[in-house]
Amino acid sequence: MATIYEVSALSGVSKSTVSRVLNDHANVSEKTKQKVMDAVKQLHYRPNSTARSLATNRSNSVGVLVSELHGPFYGDMLTAIEIKLRAAGKHAIIAAGHSDAASEIDGIEFLIERSCDALILHVDAVSDEYLIGLSKNSIPFVLINRYIEEIKENCICLDNELGGYLASKYLIDQGHRDIAYISGPLWKKDAGDRISGHKRALAEANIDFNAQLLFEADFKVKGGCDGMSYFIAQKQKFTALACANDEMASGAMKVARENGIKVPSDCSIIGFDNVFFTEYLYPQLTTVNFPIKEIALMAVRWILKNEYKTKDFNINNVFEPTIIARESVQYLPSK
Amino acid sequence: MATIYEVSALSGVSKSTVSRVLNDHANVSEKTKQKVMDAVKQLHYRPNSTARSLATNRSNSVGVLVSELHGPFYGDMLTAIEIKLRAAGKHAIIAAGHSDAASEIDGIEFLIERSCDALILHVDAVSDEYLIGLSKNSIPFVLINRYIEEIKENCICLDNELGGYLASKYLIDQGHRDIAYISGPLWKKDAGDRISGHKRALAEANIDFNAQLLFEADFKVKGGCDGMSYFIAQKQKFTALACANDEMASGAMKVARENGIKVPSDCSIIGFDNVFFTEYLYPQLTTVNFPIKEIALMAVRWILKNEYKTKDFNINNVFEPTIIARESVQYLPSK
DNA sequence: GTGAAAGCGCTAACAG
DNA sequence: CTGTTAGCGCTTTCAC
Fold first, then answer.
1. Is residue A335's pLDDT more than 60?
2. How many domains, chain A?
3. Distance of A43 CA from C5 C1′ (whole Å)
4. B268-319: per-residue pLDDT in tens?
5. Which residues of chain B are within 8 Å of residue A279 when distances are taken between CB atoms?
């Protein structure tokens, strides 16, 4: 790899000047600029960004930490972030936290060390305190899908409680009163919020919350399978099932089918997230839309505004979920 | 952020010595080691990896370039890579190429600039020549899912031709002779290989290839929908459909259902990749297994062996696909 | 407009 | 065992 020295030598100017033309600084004559550019081309020169970072203490790259790398949800999020960042001439450095506090902190520190200018974090295991502490640090960051009062300006999230409420309200409006619920891990904030919304909807309709109709799973397909199997074994009556995400809903649907339970005629099912494949399930899954793409884009705007001062965007910190009605929920006439 | 100078000052030793203990070099007395460690702890010192990279010309991070960041396929691949790399104390820097040659090259150069030690590439737009040229460069890289004769040692891939062959052979063995095919973009090597395999299976069974039963799509769900719609409109007779990937198969299944075509009794469908959600479709999709996780892991082993000389792994360059029989293909009794 | 020189934070010979 | 001295490749005052 050619260095700035060689460019300087070949073009016959000092390396300061080379640096100037490379960085579009004012006060460089057209002629020398041309000479430098020619040398650059001839040598296939590309500045070494490590050296540049060291000198400027700035890397034009933002670190993105997500809990998981797979799953449709994170995929959509990362894609949106990468495209938007790249369009702004910045780069994304992506790492995974695997929903484990130590691993998440390790990931954050890795990204800071790599001299990222700013961070986009989607973490759930790390404590609020850690994050609040981090905010006193110099590195700016946005938190996706998490709300912490003390640093709410840094948070961009969905109103999960409202989502949980809307889902169950939708079921209730369709005539259901015996509603089972498959939750995510209750220690996760979003899982907790969604179930709170569920309970609020029940309360509003004067339906007692039945603990036997609650199953705590893991946000994965398998958990949905387990949940449905559990409910079937319990022999509890339920005409509808709300799931805290779509993967679990698809698992539940599969088990229902295997047990001869018809969806939606025997049991209505509603998901959460509106992940791409919900549309390809049979029946197509009714779910709650999680505008993850918009949220991810907003996170990038936040970074562009607060770290790179590119433009003065309006930042919207909380997004509202909406119901996507498809085929998996059916009206239940009251007896 | 504290620097090595401050650690040196606080502990009362030179920065070389600090550097030595930080890097576990031999010949440092227990006592000074302790002093340094104390200072490190006290100052919350973490070495700046940018400076370190510049000095060593090595970053302990490997660049991963994929065509897309979303989709179950890439998600599984990235997860496997990230976990394995991290277990070896290395880090992944991930970028996307978006199946566009310029963008892919840009991504590769970005990763090189960031002084990655090695690269894992999953690219399809960039030319063979570029890659061959790159191999003459100093940076080692593995190519996932692409075979180039000249640099075959760097390639880790699936035998796509065999996969295409097996899929259609499976259909033929089930009694089908009128087989439609929805392909990926034909300029992509893997799409081309898969269809070659399809043709070989047909030829072997003395079935003429019918160009009207071929639809070139884009490997996306939408393409599968379009393909199925096209075949229906054509009014060509076909009792089975092979799709070059699962997303397209799911799209085709959806359109079939919307048109009253029952899968598999009216039309058998086979996919390719064995992506996680195939199991949650209805009927569950019969498909060709693409051991992407194993392939991704092998790529990391390649890097560990060739760049970091950690262990002398055995490298397996080509993997074989297998049929995963589920519910979407049915035996067709000959008349 | 352009060059010289210092320095970003760290590692790596080379002495001692 | 430890300190001194050069850099790694680039940016950035400060002179001219």
1. no
2. 3
3. 26
4. 999 999 998 898 888 999 999 999 999 999 999 999 999 988 777 799 999 9
5. 254
Angle ∠(A22,B116,B293) on CA atoms, nearest 5: 135
Closest CA to B74 of B15, B13, B145: B145
Tell me whether residue B334 is in a domain: no
- B264 cis-preceded (ω within 30 degrees of 0): yes
A276 and A171, same structural domain?
Answer: yes
pLDDT tens, position by position, A13-22: 999 999 999 9
Residue B331 lies in a domain: no
How many Cβ contacts (< 8 angstroms) between chains A and B? 120
Q: Taking CB atoms and an 8 Å cutoff, what residues of chain A touch B276? A: 221
The last residue of a domain, from among A39, A56, A73: A56
3-class state of residue A141 by DSSP:
strand
CA of A63 to C1' of D15 (A): 40
B183 and B231 in a single domain? The answer is yes
Cα gap A196→A192, rounded to integer Å? 6
Domain that holds residue B79: 61-158+292-320
Are residue A18 and residue A43 in the same domain, yes or no?
yes
CATH assignment of the domain containing B197? 3.40.50.2300
Residue B332 lies in a domain: no
User: Structure tokens of B12?
Assistant: 């009362």
Does B72 have pLDDT greater than 90?
Answer: no
Return the percentage of chain B with pLDDT > 90, whole number: 76
| Residue of A145, A137, A62, A133 lying closest to A99 (CA atoms) | A145
